[in-house]
Amino acid sequence: MTNGSGLQPNRVAVIVAHPDDEVLGCGGTIRRHVLAGDEVSVIILADGETSRGVKADTGKVAARASAAHAAAKILGVSDVTLHGLADNQLDSRPLLELVKVVEADIRRATPRIVYTHHAGDLNIDHRRVHEAVVTACRPIPGQGAMRLLFFETVSSSEWQPPGSAPVFAPNWFVDISETLDIKLRALKAYAAEMRPWPHPRSYEAIEHIAHWRGATIGRAAAEAFILGREVCD
Predict the structure, then answer these.
(1) Residue 188's CB: how many other CB atoms inside 10 A?
(2) Residue 11 near residue 39 (C-beta atoms within 8 A)
(3) What angle do CA 71, 220, 175 make, to 5 degrees?
(4) Longest Cα pair distance anywhere in the chain, in angstroms?
(5) pLDDT at 75
(6) Percent over 90 (pLDDT), the chain
(7) Average pLDDT score, the chain
(8) How many CB atoms lie within 10 A of CB 109?
(9) In what helix (H) or strand (E) does residue 33 lie, and over which residues does it extend?
């Protein structure tokens, strides 16, 4: 992966539903951007916790936010925004409200490359964030986002039955052979969210899928994406 022009760093935004989605979906790719000198912003809309109990546990919400900052530090990212919206309730908000939140982030970060969720994920927050990002990045005059990529999220993308939503069928791959270890280390920050093998959100499963995505393109490890749009100047 090289900077788009080869002359100056790219600005990159990773816009996700929950703390840990950014590492699960594209942690190795984020690290590659950082190593290339690109400016990466991680933007997280929901808190990832408030759907798990009758009342919001502020301690768990704070711990999850702290984990997001710890994971970002491991990846080398300093720009992290957490909006703290209620978990698994993004569909209760008007889409326009979410679009406006994302548009404000886009204006601030001015990314040329945007990563977000796949449209067919089982998790409703993932689908809602996908819709908001695609709308916020619509190709109108002055829109700076030139490349839009959608990633898979284990225990969501593969759990959606194929007849219920679009299947994740990647057509864009990033070699993370040299950054897989950092991705796995960043996931350690989210140890509370990980599960024992053979759950798809286990360290072993994350490593297996990275090697499988790599094998499909003749590399040791990769992350897979769907290219939503690319505009070439």
Answers:
(1) 14
(2) yes
(3) 60
(4) 52
(5) 98
(6) 90
(7) 94
(8) 22
(9) helix 21-35
pLDDT of residue 188: 98
Q: Is 6 left (phi over 0), alpha (psi -120 to 50) or beta?
A: left
The pLDDT of residue 100 is above 90: yes
DSSP per-residue letters across 98-127: HHHHHHHHHHHH--SEEEEE-TT-SSHHHH
Coil/strand/helix, residue 132: helix
Instruction: Give the C-alpha distances (Å, rounded to integers) separating 191 from 152, 171, 173.
Output: 20, 30, 26
SS (H, E, C) 153-219: CCCCCCCCCCCCCCCCCCCEEEECCCCHHHHHHHHHHHHHHCCCCCCCCCHHHHHHHHHHHHHCCCC
Q: Look up residue 198 and give its two tokens.
A: 């053979």
5: confidence class by pLDDT, cuts 50, 70, 90 = very low
pTM of the model: 0.95
Question: What CATH number does the domain located at 11-230 have?
Answer: 3.40.50.10320
When pLDDT is averaged across residues 178-183 and rounded to a whole number, the result is 98
Three-class DSSP category at 83: strand
Token digits of residue 184: 């796995």
Pair of tokens at residue 24? 């699960």
Per-residue pLDDT at 39: 98
